[in-house]
Records
---
Amino acid sequence: MSAKDDVLPELEERYQLYLGMPRQFIPWYPTIDAEKCIGCKKCMDFCHDTVYAFVEADKKVIVQDRWHCQVYCQSCTHACPKDAITFPERADVKAAIRELRQKYPAY
Amino acid sequence: MKTSEFYELSFDKFGLKVPKGYWFAGYDTWAKVDGNQATVGITDFLQTKMGDVAFFTPSEDQVLEQDDVLGTIESIKATIDLTMPVSGRVVEYNPRLKEHPEVISEDPYGDGWIVKVELSDWEADRTMLLPADKYFELMQEKVKNALAD
């Protein structure tokens, strides 16, 4: 079984793998606190990976494509004026990635 | 360095280099290992994407693990967190960056290095890094995707 057999087929090819590991097994993606979000879209301006989408009805941003998020990039948090965006603990993600590396060797 | 010591990609007015003998993280930082020490910096791709670096703020931690935030850089385009490609105890941050952070943009693989560390887990860290030829392939994908956006 190779990593390519385990990818999410509905993801665009460029988002399917992270360093040879199926992206959806890596728990790195943003969470938006809807109470804090003011719908300014600054996170959307920063992120070119369509992680975020604006919901017109609520005037808020949501996480639309979490597996598009670049692993360990959290720079959208700097763009948010309300500290509404959070990410998982890096140590937890690192542990998950190292475990995955055992299953999907590097090269 | 001689040209033969790099992989190089040219597009538009840019020439993006990847030096052989360095190790690279998927998040565009590099480590050059010498014995039990490593020098760490950002790649030519990342500095080109960022534009001129105006500030660098180092992490306050003296012990950094692979994948930890090692500091923050600000350019005219954005503020981003840099991620540590290796684990180790900080020996020193590049003292030039206080007064001249632009050296990161000018010479990312040389005078623009960011931090030197005493390695603590190199054998494990290396399994998560890419040699230059593999990073060069990844970088070409990133460039293609950046141009498509």
---
Amino acid sequence: MAVINQHGPVRNLTAKIGKGPWVIYAILIAVILFNLVGNPYFGTAYNISNVIQQSAALMLVSVGQTFVIIGGGFDFSVGGVVSLATCIVATQMKNDPLSMVWAIALVIFMGLLAGSINGLGVALFRINPFIMTIGTMSIAQGVSYILREYPGGHVPSSYIKALTGNIGFVPVPIILILCAVLAGALTLRSTRLGRYIYAVGGNEESAKASGINVKGIKIFSFMACGFFTALGGMFMAARIASGDPRVGESFPLDSITAVVLGGVIIGGGRGSLIGVAAGVLLIVILSNLLALFNVSPYYHYIIKGLLLGLAVAITFRKEERAFR
Amino acid sequence: MTSGPQGDRIALEMRSVKKAFGNMLALEDVSFSCRYGEVQGLVGENGAGKSTLMKILAGELQPDEGMIFIKGERVEFKNPRQAREKGISLIHQEFSLVPYLTVAENIFLGSEPRNRLGLIDSRSLHRRSREILDQLQIDLELEAVVASLSLAQKQLVEIAKSLQTDPQILIMDEPTAALERPEIENLFALISRIKAQGRTVVFISHRLEEVFEITDHISVLRNGQVIGTFASSGVTKDELIEAIIGRKLGQFFPPKSKAIGRELLRLKGLIRDSSVRGVDLSLRGGEILGLAGLEGQGQHVLLRALFGADLSVKADGEVTLNDQPLDLSHPRCTIMSGLGYVPGDRQAEGLILNLSVADNISLPGLAKRTNCGLICRADEAGLAQSEVKTLAIKVSSLDTPVKTLSGGNQQKVVLAKWLASDTDIFILDEPTRGVDIGTRAEIYGLMRELANQGKAIVMSSRDLDEVIGMSDRVAVVYRGKIIREYEADSCSKEHILDIITRVPEEEIRGRDLGCD
């Protein structure tokens, strides 16, 4: 006979926690506590606000990356898209509101375009997402260089203030982060589109045989990624107050690392944005710490590379055990 | 048949072999022997133990008990290599050829002749490959890339490859399954030549006509036991079929339908590449229609085409549902029209293993239930809960990933998907594959209950008992066509087995004439 919910609510709760991305939160909290105690500079208002400012762009990009990875792909083009977004803002945006609207619309259109190119290539022409998205990455990179050969350009101060300032006591980047994570999580958890992304990432054939438009879902996941990445780029432009054709370089690795740290399985079908948010914060805080300790930025790359390998190995082991 | 040069000497003997997989006894005290220079047939239903027995002989499986003698000498094979060294070679149903190597390279794959420098001696490779092919009078280019060959030609390469180690005992598992009649005749000529060299061939096939044609003796396996060994010339086909099927399983199946409704689905001249060649069928409400036939006759492709699976290959023909044309271009369309498909391979196509039981169950019906794209989790859980209850799916929680469930429970989840999405027409491909006997009975009961509610079911199964036991109507599929239809009460298993195993001469002739 059916045996369901015979455990009490407590058992159910522990079961839920056991499945959730609590490990990453535990690590995150441990790292924060350790440094609040050990490093007097870490807890200063200036440093906290710095961490928040640094997190926002990566958070937006990682939300997009999560859509693609849960759907069974990954997107390297986020770097080029972020760089290009900053260059568009720095070249197209003047001080009048009309040009601001125009530049914002152009950036979002560019993000969606890059996403749909990726999606079409992967879904319709069955190009490996790795190849497809590094191709798009290169194109976006090239356009960035054409727009802004070297970092610079003009970003209106009202735009910078709007994105990096405060509303009341609350920094705008925090609002951005919350909105993006909530919107992303709601889409993934509670909409048909979101469920279908999990299904397609989990098993394309079964998804197809359940009546799902697999190609459409793949295209959608890449477009969602392009959209969030464009938002990330817009924020980046405000933060660096310029257009920089190389500013996005670290985003592909960082966003994929954050997503994997957050418990999303490469290959698709599992994971949640709540974990990814912690993954992003962990990466940013680790970078922040290394900077506080005056570790050369070159070592950051090495450490982040190791972190990615470790995160993949751990989630892979978890998978293995789950199958046993 | 006159015997070969080595007379009536026993080439191979298996004595009291036992093998169990977990709790399932696959072979229970099986004894089996062959003489030199003879072709020994091995027949039995799916799951009777033929493949297990032959895998033990070829060293791929180890018996739990029993002894094997080759030329009177006791052997114990721990792996296929040891069996090959003793002159035993098994040709699998699935080919083991490397597609982008040439014929010669494939024949000597793994035992390439080498020159003094340790490099492959391609001259010797070609000479010796040529010798093997000539000896068997196989007409193939040594330099041809295997991927470019036809199925029948690949079969020949496979046989040539197996002869490269000069085996004395050659086991062929369903070698004719994918072949057309002229190719089968070639193969039989080849088998005769192998036999004339004094070698022994064990020939496994479902097609009894062919078994009679090529073998000297026939052994019948049923439920892991040898029912008997007969001289091919001294047994009638009816006797053989009796031996193969044994007692009837009628009481296992629920009573048949009494109230069959109006026609729901009609297929007219459905064509799908070369596998489905013009099928006419009709399916009525309250009815279970069973497709019977040997493996690979197109039943599977027919069911997939009907559901709109495999989008790359277009199906042609007229399909109507309630007299309206049915769009077969994507499962999305067929599901919207009320069709549901339980695939033969549930893990590959039926389930998203990482998703929970509830998520899997709600998936196909999601499009009909969401509000502006938003999922109501409470409704979803309620729906899943009620299906879990109806089907008695054993899970600790609705959030359990389906990959942790047993095969039987997974199959129930696949059925629950379609129950939960207002399906009127169920397409069931091997509905009880890999499902334990208790769950099988439950699934049978469910199928009949659905039919009694007025739903229509079309099913296909390799298990003929299942097809006959469950169906109100049985359609026999042969090479992509329906060649016969029977009402449930007017057909016996013997009769249908006779039809599907006897290569229907008139069909072939009819088709060949049609081609001319």
